[in-house]
Write a sequence for this structure.
């Protein structure tokens, strides 16, 4: 749905962004059309848009015992244990309301609600015996086998307010000024598939649940709205200045333990346990209190956009101060034993960035370079510090380059898009808590092996989204084949959460077929899979072998699934 203030902004937008926006729109699964409300006045433009979605997902592979026997992975694996089990049966609605008066002032509200009928039975564990006299159930990550409130809300049934803001467009001294206040997303830079490496890093919290369930989703689509104010002023025809000040903070929405696509059974927002294996049994470590930044903590950003007359494109210059939205997982220790594990979020990171957007013919190119000072680094569960409030910090350099290519007509397809992105991270220095840094050459990673999850000084990741399209295959029906793969090409990301945020050999991929029906509904059938490198195996005290270490989210190796999604707007 197009808003009047967005139309005005596009009049001063950059050429490359115009091309990029249109190509990204072609990649989206559903084109939304607003229901226009007749107010009886030509001064008001009022739209109410609703999108209903239904997602049916089925496990495509049975449990691999090497995954299911790991006491930190079994809850997610045994929740839906058989190939053919329904892993999601979810219906949701997104409602969006926008009102604008004479194109310069207005407001927008949006929200969503959902219900998943596949998650009603609560947490499930391996039914076997981990050690003599110790069952897997006794090592379950959830107390009493009951999901916490966070898991219930985002996996079983819940609702949320998304956008809720007012906008005002005006002129000062003949120059356009755009103001916005409320809850919304702000997205700077041009990274498409590299949420941890782009200039937009932590500009909003990201929906990690969506990232795992929908590989190839662009960074911008993963952002969650937050309270803030923003302003853009067009100083000259070639120069614009933008500012952002955040009035609220929230954390990344991570996949939680005991769900089908999890990072670890202990990854839960709320009461849960981390299992630490011992030679004869295991230790249950409870989750302690989360350490969060204040809601208002002087997080802001400044941006200068320059559209020089000598090039078909634009440059951007950025400064941001930010609190991070991805947590460290830390431990407190006493007498050589962990007393709890807890989440903590880094504060006061400083970011300097530069972006370049341009087009060559019909191809849209983008480049970003950013420097982050005292950003959170991958942190190990180490007793090196007894009481841990912060993990390792350091300075990093990130480079991101991408291209969006419209597909020309060939005997194989009629049209479509190809998006490719390459991201590079270089660790410049470890500035704080080096004894906790989970990196090659550091004490907190004694194996000194990237295949064991140790971070490296350099990391390269890549993403590819290929979507050929065939028009009017049936009357009123266009077909496409959305295909994507994202993952690590070399090294393990030194940025927190390390191998969970990018690791060599860890890939997410999907291939599907999509029907766009009369421009108002889509039906998409996809196969989605994951691959991570398993480095070492171990044996439980009861003699069951299991995968113990690796690079990336090794617990997802046996969890490919088939997804059927229907969406319709009205």
């Amino acid at each position: 749905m197009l808003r009047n203030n967005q139309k005005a902004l596009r009049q001063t937008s950059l050429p490359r962004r115009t091309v990029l926006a249109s190509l990204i729109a072609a990649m989206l699964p559903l084109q939304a059309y607003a229901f226009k409300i007749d107010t009886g006045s030509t001064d008001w433009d009022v739209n109410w848009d609703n999108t209903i979605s239904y997602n049916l997902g089925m496990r495509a592979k049975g449990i691999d015992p090497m995954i299911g026997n790991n006491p930190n992975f079994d809850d997610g694996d045994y929740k839906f244990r058989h190939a053919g089990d329904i892993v999601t049966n979810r219906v949701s609605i997104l409602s969006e309301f926008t009102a604008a008066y004479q194109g310069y002032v207005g407001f927008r509200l949006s929200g969503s609600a959902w219900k998943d009928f596949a998650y009603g039975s609560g947490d499930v564990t391996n039914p076997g015996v981990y050690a003599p006299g110790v069952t897997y159930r006794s090592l379950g990550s959830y107390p009493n086998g009951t999901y916490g409130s966070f898991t219930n809300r985002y996996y079983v049934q819940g609702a949320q307010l998304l956008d809720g803001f007012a906008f005002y467009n005006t002129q000062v001294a003949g120059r356009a000024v755009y103001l916005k206040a409320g809850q919304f997303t702000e997205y700077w830079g041009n990274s498409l598939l590299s949420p941890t490496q782009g200039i937009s890093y932590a500009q909003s919290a990201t929906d990690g649940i969506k990232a795992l369930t929908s590989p190839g989703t662009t960074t911008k689509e993963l952002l969650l709205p937050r309270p803030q104010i923003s302003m853009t002023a067009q100083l000259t025809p070639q120069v614009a200045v933008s500012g952002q000040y955040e009035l609220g903070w929230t954390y990344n929405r991570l996949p939680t333990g005991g769900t089908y696509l999890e990072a670890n059974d202990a990854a839960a927002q709320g009461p849960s346990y981390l299992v630490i294996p011992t030679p004869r049994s295991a230790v249950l470590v409870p989750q302690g209190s989360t350490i969060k930044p204040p809601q208002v903590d002087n997080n802001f950003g400044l941006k200068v956009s320059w559209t020089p007359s000598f090039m078909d494109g634009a440059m951007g210059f950025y400064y941001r101060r930010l609190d991070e939205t991805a947590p460290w997982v830390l431990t407190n220790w006493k007498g050589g034993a962990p007393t709890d594990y807890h989440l903590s979020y880094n504060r006061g990171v400083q970011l300097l960035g530069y972006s370049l957007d341009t087009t060559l013919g019909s191809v849209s190119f983008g480049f970003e370079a950013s420097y982050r000072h005292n950003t959170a680094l991958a942190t190990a569960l180490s007793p090196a510090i007894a009481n841990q409030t912060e993990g390792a910090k350091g300075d990093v350099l990130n480079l991101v380059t991408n291209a969006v290519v419209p597909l020309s007509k060939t005997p194989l397809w009629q049209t479509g898009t190809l998006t490719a992105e390459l991201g590079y991270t270089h660790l410049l220095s470890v500035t704080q808590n080096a004894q906790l840094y989970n990196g090659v050459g550091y004490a907190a990673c004694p194996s000194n092996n990237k295949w064991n999850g140790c971070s490296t000084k350099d990391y390269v990741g890549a993403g590819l989204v290929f979507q050929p399209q065939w028009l009017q295959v049936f009357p009123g029906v266009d077909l496409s084949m959305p295909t994507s793969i994202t993952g690590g090409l070399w090294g393990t990301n030194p940025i927190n959460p390390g191998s969970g945020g990018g690791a060599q050999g860890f890939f997410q991929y999907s291939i599907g077929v999509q029907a766009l029906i009369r421009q108002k509904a889509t039906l998409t059938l996809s196969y989605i899979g994951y691959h991570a490198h398993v480095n070492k195996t171990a044996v439980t005290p009861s003699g069951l072998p299991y995968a113990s270490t690796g690079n990336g989210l090794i617990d997802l190796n046996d969890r490919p699934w088939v997804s059927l999604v229907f969406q319709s707007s009205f």
Q: What stands out?
A: Residues 4-569 form one domain. Helices lie at 4-11, 15-27, 65-68, 74-79, 149-156, 208-213, 219-222.
